[in-house]
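Lab notebook page, bench 4
Experiment: in silico fold of construct C2
Operator: M.H.
Input chain length: 354 residues
Purpose: comparison with the prior construct
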Amino acid sequence: MPNVDTTQPAGSRRRESSMPPVLKQLIGRQPDARALVAAIADALGSSITVEDADGRVLYGDGLAGPDNVRVPVTHQEARVGWVAGPPHARTIAALLDHLVARDAEKKALGAEVLHLYREINLIYSFSEKLAALLELERVARLTLDEARHVIVATDGVLLLLDEDADTLTAVAGFGDELPTLDGLRRGHGIVGAVAASGVGEVVNDVALDARRAREHTKVRGLICAPLKVGERTIGVLALGSTDPMPYTAAELKLLTTLALQTATAIVHKHFVTIGEPPLTGSAAAEVSEAAAMLHPSSAVAPYVTVSVGVSAMLPDVASAPETLFDAADRALYVAKARGRNCVVSRHDDLPDVA
């Protein structure tokens, strides 16, 4: 009966592979790997057999000699196969360990490239769709539709933050659990914690998280991304599953990408809606202050400000467009000379400002 080499670190236990048949794919589909195993076996003068994790022969005749050993081939603590033969079989097993690891690295790199392509394509198509929407609820529903298209979820909700009351209000949602959460506040519950910190989270066992807003909930897994414009959090985008769902960091990255684009669209569409009168200069300044885009190096204010020059004219046949543009431009320079963050209308008594 052949010996079995079970050498492993003290206190550790190998787990049987639940991975795809990586060794079968390596030996069966990569001629170079098979030829390398054969060349080393010939050089060592050994007749060896390579088996998958279930003992099926992938290479060799499967005949056992009296002095044969059976050495495991492993990857990430999982047993993916065996090499049987004379003591030199350990050398072949070490080689296969290395080849399996290299093959896994190539597949992981390919998956990462595919994920990046998927993210870029998502950003591009989502931006185009957002640009065509003019209503807050439709923006929220589009965001949730796009999110559930790329991330498995039974529930989802988009909430906006009332910064004065510290409350979170649902704009749109789907499912029976997340949209029915009420009384959510910044800093309360998992979703509220994301609103307070401005940092996305993955919680794959909600029942064990003491922060949960509802004691008894069917939601098992939860993934949340803040709606942020600069350093300001205006809400939360959350997906959940009532089935066991191990959400990943890559999925959180995708959800965060959608949340950032949505937050920008919500801010712009909240302040400037097509069909309403254009903003006056003072309203534009108020929008800038409300958006609170930080500008710590400014000598005028700690946020980005707006200086506006305005001019109007009743044209006649001798009027030139450049006259109107020049008047507005001179008014703008006067606004800047007066300390910025103000609106100046062009009149003939305005001084020239170089």
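Observations: Residues 3-105 form one domain. Residues 45 and 88 are 9 Å apart (CA to CA).
Next step: discuss at group meeting.
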